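User: Quick sanity check before I run a bigger batch. Here is a single chain. Can you write out its predicted 3D structure?
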Amino acid sequence: MDRKNLFIAFEGIDGSGKSTQVNMLSAFLTERGHKVYTTCEPTESKIGKMIRDIFNHRMEGDQRVIAALFAADRLNHLLNSEDGILNKLEEGYTVITDRYYFSSYAYHSVHGIDMDWIIQTNSLSADLLRPDLNIYIDIQPEVSMERLKKGRTHIEMYETLENLSKVHKKYREAFEKIGDKEEVFYVNGDRTSSAISADINKKITSMI
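Assistant: Done. Predicted structure follows.
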């Protein structure tokens, strides 16, 4: 790896605590003098807004359309000239994203879309930039649903126990399918946020 700054992607089902861990890792690295840029998918772009509108039932969208929109949003996330991930890495930031293409592999394939097609549709993004580390927070779907019910005023399209259980299995399938092309760090998400953070900090420290 030529650069010292990292590109880190957090993955996991809804309610796994990704957002919390993104913030905790960002604080950990910032305290140690690193420039950190945090981001998420879907993005705040116009494409990302369309995805959010579908999720929140403000707009109709077939699952195949959603999968294609995510692929487009991801490319824009990488290539946008203002705040794209590639630009931020070039500027010396360590970039941490809440979701990247493994989310598409897992979530869209639950709805009958062939995972190989989803991987191919996102191949431009993968060819442009693979994460230095994918951090997968592995949490039981029952635990995630409890957290979602406590922390949300409304539940989005994918946030049912049946669906999250299927997505949980699809994540494993995706990691097995991709094999050694990706660096994946599994962390037990059923524990406290501080225990999860300690494991992640130890792993990241070994890389920088």
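The domain at 7-205 is CATH 3.40.50.300 (Rossmann fold).

User: Great, the batch can go ahead then.
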